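Regression test case RT-17, inverse folding.

Input:
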């Protein structure tokens, strides 16, 4: 048997080859027609690739989807769903729909996508769904979505009307609520109640105690909403007492906060503000007021953020106004008095080393402010900083001489020595989902312990950058930092 035949007769090798060459969702289907071995290997790779499915819209053109980063026409998407279910025998586990059009009634394609997900993609495999995110936004809580909610481990975001219809879960479940959910509930009960006490009592009584069987609540924090008679998008206040009712009624120990830039959003509902029954708060406000809702662990996930992530970055362009998000870490510490705060998926695509240096200094300043605001004797703060260099040749150091890109204090090395670790990217870095694959990162980790603060910093770099050549000595030194 020739070497070529030996290679293509080995299913493991064949699957590995196909895994690395599959780039176009539709065009790659031709591989299965080569022979039976290719067909079998192709279907195995296909099932592994699409067991978790991230479906994104493009804002400027809703005839195109991106499924796990791959571009596909909407008319072919529904046929592809049917192929996955009927031919590939895929039992999808995770479905996430993001970047939806803000105007539901003006976009029929969303309704078709919703129906195709249920009838063609899932089609009888409801019990296999583990995460079902964003689909309900296309239907506002239909019976089929609520059936999935019974068994899904993560479901949402849910509207106020869906919360009333939701039933007790069949397995442990995390629910996603939004700041819009909080606003809607506050306006509904605030306008119906005669007093502040009656209003808060009504809200608490309508939050069913058996809707969750876990200890984690997920809050989508809208970064951009529209308000009557105001230009531009921004984050508006939400009613603190409604969030507090969710946390206390469900006895939440962990709160996951996701600042979300693009998601289906109605006009900002501000009717509750004039009732004087609620405290209007924003996480990006610089406030010295303490509103303590005790939560043990707060996690801030920046994977779908624009403004919050941008404010964390260092920018040479001074004309870009900040939205106040450097205050978010301090606000979390003040508001929830947590034992642990974790910032995840903070990504940067820097053009030169001074950006990295400036961003690192921004992070250190935010950590310092957060430590001063804590009212707990100890605070564990975990921070993930992911650096993506797409082209090392174009990555420059504009400063003459040696550039210190990480001004790491010596105390970082007192408790734990830096060590290497690997991780896969958890999502598709914006704003070009079609150009970003499932990247592998390498990291250095440091720990600092001082005056009750334990700060764990993980700095990640995409592994591909380490294998590229550069003549810039400063860039070489930066890359050696991760080796």
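Golden output:
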């Amino acid at each position: 048997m020739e070497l070529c035949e030996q290679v293509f007769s080995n299913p493991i090798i064949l699957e590995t080859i196909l895994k690395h060459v599959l780039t176009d969702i539709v065009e790659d289907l031709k591989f299965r027609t080569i022979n039976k071995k290719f067909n079998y290997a192709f279907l195995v790779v296909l099932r592994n690739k699409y067991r978790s499915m991230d479906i994104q819209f493009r804002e400027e053109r809703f005839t195109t989807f991106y499924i796990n980063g791959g571009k596909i026409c909407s008319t072919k998407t529904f046929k592809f769903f049917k192929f996955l279910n009927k031919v590939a025998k895929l039992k999808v586990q995770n479905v996430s729909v993001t970047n939806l059009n803000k105007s539901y009634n003006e976009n029929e394609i969303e309704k078709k996508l919703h129906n195709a997900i249920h009838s063609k993609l899932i089609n009888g495999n409801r019990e296999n769904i583990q995460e079902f995110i964003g689909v309900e936004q296309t239907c506002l809580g239909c019976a089929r979505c609520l059936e999935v909610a019974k068994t899904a481990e993560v479901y949402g975001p849910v509207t106020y009307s869906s919360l009333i219809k939701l039933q007790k879960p069949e397995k442990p479940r995390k629910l996603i609520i939004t700041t819009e959910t909080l606003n809607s509930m506050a306006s509904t009960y605030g306008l119906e109640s005669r007093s502040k006490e009656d209003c808060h009592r009504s809200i608490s009584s309508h939050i069913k105690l058996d809707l969750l069987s876990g200890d984690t609540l997920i809050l989508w924090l809208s970064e951009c909403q529209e308000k009557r008679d105001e230009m531009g998008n921004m984050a508006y206040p939400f009613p603190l007492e409604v969030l507090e009712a969710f946390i206390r009624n469900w006895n939440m120990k962990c709160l996951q906060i996701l600042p979300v830039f693009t998601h289906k959003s109605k006009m900002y509902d501000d009717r509750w503000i004039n009732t004087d029954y609620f405290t209007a708060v924003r996480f990006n406000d610089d406030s010295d007021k303490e509103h303590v809702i005790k939560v043990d662990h707060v996690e801030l996930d920046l994977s779908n953020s624009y403004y919050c992530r941008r404010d964390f970055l260092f920018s040479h362009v001074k004309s870009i106004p900040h939205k106040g998000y450097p205050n978010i870490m301090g606000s979390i510490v003040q508001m929830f008095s947590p034992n642990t705060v974790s910032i995840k998926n903070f990504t940067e695509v820097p053009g030169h080393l001074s950006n990295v240096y400036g961003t690192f200094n921004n992070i250190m300043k935010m950590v310092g402010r957060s430590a001063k605001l804590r009212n707990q004797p100890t605070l564990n703060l975990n921070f993930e900083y992911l650096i993506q260099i797409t082209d090392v040749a174009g990555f420059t150091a504009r400063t003459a001489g040696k550039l210190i890109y990480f001004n790491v204090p010596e105390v970082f090395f007192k408790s734990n020595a830096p060590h290497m670790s690997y991780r896969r990217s958890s999502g598709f870095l914006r704003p070009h989902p079609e150009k970003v694959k499932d990247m592998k990162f390498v990291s250095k980790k440091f720990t600092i312990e001082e005056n009750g603060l334990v700060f764990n910093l993980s700095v990640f770099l995409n592994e591909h950058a380490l294998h590229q050549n550069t003549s810039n000595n400063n860039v070489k030194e930066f890359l050696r930092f991760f080796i």
